[in-house]
Design brief:
This protein has about 425 residues and is of the alpha/beta class. The chain is built from twelve helices and 21 strands. It has a six-stranded mixed sheet with strand order 14-13-12-11-8-15. A four-stranded mixed sheet has the order 18-19-21-20.
Length: about 425
């Protein structure tokens, strides 16, 4: 196997992104039940800060997999399917032929607007902690999360998880699915928008208990009193078809029913003679340059797929449709345990060891505990936890923390090939002292 990476350092953009919390599947709600950990056979990760997640993945990759692959620091400029082989051309001029090619190139840098110095999504400077008057242009997930982060801080992902859990199994789940189905039938702009305006999100009010589950993550009122966010959309609706339903419900709750800190404006950004303006629906122009009403301008107008310079337009459209189809996927079935079979020596020829898997499972559980400020004790993690469905027993001593874990529906928690189960008693009779037992 050969890995081609054009950047000298893997995960380069995310290494300083301590201001962003990631969640394995919250954007797929309500099609998928929110789970704070992944169910991958290896390279498992859990909800947590982006920089901590990528550091753990990098360390696991280097310890277990890197020695099993060839590594090329280079850039692919062309990929051609020859039928029996795939031919790749590198910028260096060296061609490579392979039987299977997996393209996981991500996206190019975010689209800029004029000379506006908008901070990148993964840049710590995108945090709205100092500036009170902020303009966010764009209502994809990046734009919505930036606007919501001014209200929730880094806890916006926790608020989304709590909201999804509180709404799970209720009629609203079916309503959201139907709304998104109708909008998909009228999708425009290559699936990035829909001609169906749909006022569902604007009208919907959260049940009292669901609103309380969200409000616990709001920034202190003293902090909120000074926040003034203007969210600009040029799409059919501020509740853009391309953004995740859970983020749209959060926006609706905060902007319409909980706080006036976010103002939604239909309009666009325009540039004229080197000056930059916000033009709203009434054609009024407002400067957004330095010394304007806005102390920070954040532009979230998307980014082009990095493979757009490699594949044809037909191939790109095919991939875009596949992405839309995946977005509406049900819970993915459990991986093939015969193919990904763990033994006391690890997994086949991958180089992944049982010791590493045990450490990864403990790390994932600890990461979730850290996010929600819950001290979780973990019992023995044996081979049978990954091969014979023997649960990983965990305990939470503090009653309030235990109640929080139950309210957030954290357990049973799928942790890679294993499952962590919350035990009622902390008495551990006859349990082995460590994972080696």
């Amino acid at each position: 196997m050969t890995v081609i990476e054009r950047k000298e350092k893997s995960f380069e953009e995310y290494r300083n992104a301590a201001h962003r919390e990631l969640h394995p599947n919250i954007i797929f709600w309500p099609e998928q039940r929110p789970t704070p950990t992944t169910a991958l056979p290896f390279l498992n990760w859990a909800q947590g800060k982006a920089d901590e997640i990528v550091e753990a993945l990098r360390r696991e990759w280097e310890e277990s997999f890197q020695k099993k692959v060839s590594y090329i620091n280079g850039r692919v400029i062309n990929a051609e399917d020859k039928g029996d082989v795939v031919k790749l051309d590198l910028a260096s001029g060296d061609p490579i032929e392979c039987d299977i090619c997996v393209l996981a190139a991500g996206y190019e840098s975010e689209r800029k607007f004029g000379q506006i110095q908008s901070p990148g999504y993964w840049s710590p400077s995108s945090v709205c902690s100092e500036e009170n008057r902020v303009l966010v242009s764009g209502t994809g997930d990046g734009g919505l999360i930036d606007a919501l982060s001014a209200i929730f801080g880094i806890k916006v992902t926790r608020a989304a998880h709590a909201l999804a859990v509180s709404l799970q199994g209720r009629e609203v789940c079916s309503d959201v699915k139907e709304v998104e189905r109708i909008r998909s039938e009228k999708s425009i702009d290559d699936g990035r928008d829909s001609s169906e305006v749909c006022d569902f999100y604007e009208r919907f009010r959260l049940p009292t208990d669901a609103a309380a589950s969200v409000d616990q993550f709001l920034e202190p009122k003293k902090r909120l009193d000074g926040v003034d966010v203007t969210l600009v959309h040029s799409s059919t609706s501020a509740y853009s078809y391309s953004s995740a339903p859970i983020n749209k419900l959060l926006l609706s709750h905060v902007a319409k029913h909980r706080s006036k800190a976010i103002r939604i404006v239909s309009g666009s950004l325009e540039e004229e003679s080197g000056a930059h303006f916000l033009v709203d629906g009434s054609s009024d122009k407002k400067s957004i340059d330095k010394d304007s009403d806005f102390e920070k301008v954040i532009v979230r107008h998307g980014a082009a797929p990095a493979i757009s310079s490699i594949l044809s337009e037909d191939q790109l459209r095919s991939l875009q449709q596949a992405a839309l189809d995946h977005g509406h996927a049900k819970d993915l079935s459990v991986y093939d345990r015969d193919v990904f079979k763990w033994t006391t020596t690890g997994m086949g020829r991958t180089g992944a060891s049982l010791k590493l898997l045990q450490r990864s499972a403990r790390s994932a559980i600890a990461s979730v505990g850290k996010v929600y400020e819950i001290t979780i004790e973990v019992g023995s993690v044996r081979l049978g936890c990954f091969t014979d469905n023997i649960p990983i027993d965990v305990w939470i001593e503090d009653p309030e923390e235990r109640e929080r874990a139950e309210r957030l529906n954290l357990f049973p928690m799928k942790v890679g090939p294993a499952e962590a189960v919350l035990k009622r008693s902390s008495i551990r009779r006859g349990e082995a002292a460590d994972d080696a037992a």
